[in-house]
Amino acid sequence: MSPERPEGAGIAVPGSAGLSRPGLRGREAELERLRALVEAVRDGEGGAIALLLGEPGIGKTVLLQETVSIARAHGFAVSHGRAEELHELAPLASLASGLLHGDPPLLSSTDFADLAGHHDQRVWLVERLAQLIEERSAGTPVLIGVDDVQWADPLSRFALSVMPARLLSSPVLWLLTGRSDPALYRQGPRTTTLPLRPLSDTALAELGRDVLGGDVPKKVAELLDGAGGNPFLAAEMLTGIAASGADAPEPPERLVRGVRDRLADLRPDTLHFLRIGSVLGRAFSLADAAALCGRPASGLGAEVDEAIAAALLHDDGERLLFRHDLLRQAVYADLTPSVRRALHREAASRLVAAGRSSTDAVPHLLKSAEPGDQEAIGLLGTAVTDVIAVMPDLAADLAVRALQLVPPHAPMVFDVGERAIVALTRAGRYTQARDTGDALLARQPPLDVFARLQSVLGDALWHLDDVHELTRRSTAALAAVTDPTIRARLTARQALARSRGRDLGAARETGERALAEAERSGDREARVLALWGLGEIALNAGDCAAAVEHHTALSVFDTAFLPEEAVARIHMDDFDTVRRLLRTGGDAPLRPAMLIWAQGTLNMGLGLLDDADADFVTAERLEADLHLPGNLVNIRVNRGLLAMLRGDREAAREHLDVVRAAVAERPNTGNHATHQYFEAVAADADGDHAAAAELVRSVQRDHPFLRWRLLRPHVVQAVRMALRGGDRNLAEDLAAQAVEHATRNPGVPTAQGAAAHASALANADHGLLERSVRILLTGPRPLPLAAASADLGRALLTAGDPAATPALTRAHDIYARAGADAEAEWVRADLERATSRSGRRTGGLRPRPAQGWDALTASERKVARLIAAGHTNRSAAEALVVSPHTVNTHLASIFRKLSVRSRVHLARIALAEGDTATATGG
């Protein structure tokens, strides 16, 4: 008998129009909506989410099971799992409980073992899981059900928040039950929320007839009112009434007392066994219960049989389960709080003694451990190490709880506290990490401990952009430290902080000293920090070759820093090497958002504006998935500047609003500079040239304009804004900075060409414009070449030189190919003037529509045709040599522009538009 199926419940043919069993009385409307969802997904309408919400016993599980039966009858592959209250520390346990079981399982054990091998990379893990489900759903619709999602482990919750949108176009129905809206889903499939209300009097009467076998007496009907419309409580009442009459207390007291009555009839050993089971959770293994009972599992047969006969437990072949969680809660509630605490503590010790992992024992410790519990502190520390890679927030909570258990004056408080600081920082809870460290420092630890704590606090202070405090603390700690490893780390932290300061020469000396100390100490962390600091210092100083040297050494030493090497090489115009780096970034990059940011930066440099925008959208989404939006301002500034190039002022304003909000929430000097420059571009476009020039000046108040790496490609535009604002001194200052940057980077065509272009504008020197164009023709960036060609063409046009036409034509064609429609239109007006003298005319650009096939970018068309031809997201990504994450972004845009919900609909449109065999050709 199924653990959730009421005894004696009849079953009709799954998928038939009528109710499948009496347990569904009063749920006809909800069942029909779920049936419609199943049929819509089966018929190619794309993915969908259904949420069944309500109190315990309201009928969520019965509806889920009935929907599973309907889906199976319609040919679905089904995964039906359950989240367990005491299993929140086991990564992916809630999803795995269903994915690995079934007939056949949705995932093989080999597939899952492959996932487990990358447990420390949660973005990759979830993406790979989505790929496996996508492949499975290619020929068969899939239903993935998770019961009691309110208890899902954090990694399963993360997967459930990401995968429905990732599998938007696949025939996957997500069916989740919970006590309240889990708020897991984001933009993605259509979501149907079904709050289950109390049963009506009519439905309760029908339920009564089902159980009693006839009409419900008036007295029984009055008693049923006390069930509050809860079908499980009502069924329990009716079962009791059928057995012993209608004289009984009202629920929920009746349930507890009814269970207590059943327990009173049991043998003492069986009663003890059930209480142990209620502490272990709704589902528990016989071996665990036996360990806690202190008896061999083979000696508990009589207790198990008696509990099953009393309709309290069910045996599913692998575990014992309470027939409903309300029954477990009733048994658990009958224990006094002190007994519960003692049993949970004993459960933790017994599980550890039996060789179980910390993730099995820690949930019991959280309910029982008291200050000074050394074993609990140690197990919590082990659990932190086990889960921090994939569940950093949970790890942080566990580390903080361990610290709370340490007596205030115990020597171990500093070691446990250091672990808490690291975990909090890893979870992005930087302020709490700093406050935790400061509380420990207030206890006046020994000097070496003081230095060690300041070292681990450095990461939190860096992310809080409090470089002044980082410098102050690292300097103070260096005066106290004796441990060479901690000294090397502190020196490296100091160098990193000084990379944001004005004296970059002193910062470089500190970084070189840190690297030497790291090599002497042989400490990996110190070496990483030192190389990172030296790379940052070089980039900020504009020494691109040195930045590449340090970031390459860092990337070889730690592949997590491959994006930094890619960005450093982009500053060197070494685009070919960057392409190779990004292609060989690995199937499981440790920092996918930053890797895709680097790809977007490359595509922006290449003038592939549509692709760059898709990359930036993808990077922002990945950061949002992880709740670590550290690069949001840079992403939105770039997207806003792209929108301005296209002439989409509305989109640019939307991006600017996001930037303003992000800077207000987390101000720092780098964000201030990029934000103020974006404000300048917007003001200039609005015709407020004086305000634009003042905003450019504000960028330099902390550091010179060229110090801001994101803004270096825009120095020519900044000079132009300064001139339009009537500030020639500012224009000349900016041009001088560009010349200095070019001098430091003699082998970088963009630096040389931008310097010539900026100086030409500041000094009205046509010869420098010609030089700029010649240099930029040798470089890899088309947009700077277009800008220089346009300015040269305008100058020649003013002089009446016929060479204006080829220069303006080159600029117009580059802008048009890039999709920089606004710039192309400006150049076209000048080109019209030039060509009118020779009798030629140029045609205007046809704006891209917002909807329909013609609204798709070239890359989106390629993706659409590949998907229509039967490719999965992964195989489409391989064909296009892009990330599967970027393919996901393209697909979401394609679906929005074509107003479709599934691959089936997309295939019809793509086939109507042309041969899918030409997919990679656009």
Overall pLDDT level: 87
Number of strands: 8
Helical proportion? Answer: 55-70%
> Shape from CA axes?
globular
Strand content: under 5%
How many strands, which pairing sense, and closed or not: the largest β-sheet?
5 strands, parallel
**Unreliable sequence segments:** 1-20, 248-252, 915-922
Category by helix and strand content:
mainly alpha
Q: How much is the radius of gyration in Å?
A: 33 Å
Number of helices: 45
Q: What is the straight-line distance between the termini?
A: 56 Å
Strand arrangement across the biggest beta sheet: 2-3-4-1-5
Please give a quick description of this structure.
The chain is mostly helical and about 900 residues long.
Describe the overall structure.
- 64% of the residues lie in helices and 4% in strands.
- It is built from 45 helices and 8 strands.
- The strands form 2 sheets. Strands 2-3-4-1-5 form a 5-stranded parallel beta sheet, sandwiched between helices. Strands 6-8-7 form a 3-stranded antiparallel beta sheet.
- Strand 7 (313-315) and strand 8 form a beta hairpin.
- Helix 35 (715-724) packs antiparallel against helix 36.
- 54% of the residues are buried.
Write the layout of secondary structure elements.
Elements: H1 28-42, E1 48-53, H2 60-73, E2 77-82, H3 93-99, H4 109-116, H5 122-137, E3 142-147, H6 154-166, E4 172-178, E5 190-195, H7 201-212, H8 218-225, H9 231-244, H10 253-264, H11 268-280, E6 283-284, H12 286-293, H13 301-309, E7 313-315, E8 320-322, H14 325-333, H15 337-353, H16 358-366, H17 374-387, H18 392-405, H19 413-426, H20 430-441, H21 447-463, H22 467-478, H23 484-498, H24 504-521, H25 524-541, H26 544-557, H27 562-571, H28 575-583, H29 592-605, H30 609-626, H31 632-646, H32 649-665, H33 669-685, H34 689-699, H35 715-724, H36 728-744, H37 749-763, H38 766-776, H39 782-798, H40 804-818, H41 821-836, H42 858-868, H43 873-880, H44 884-898, H45 903-913
Parallel strand pairs: 1-4, 1-5, 2-3, 3-4
Antiparallel strand pairs: 6-8, 7-8
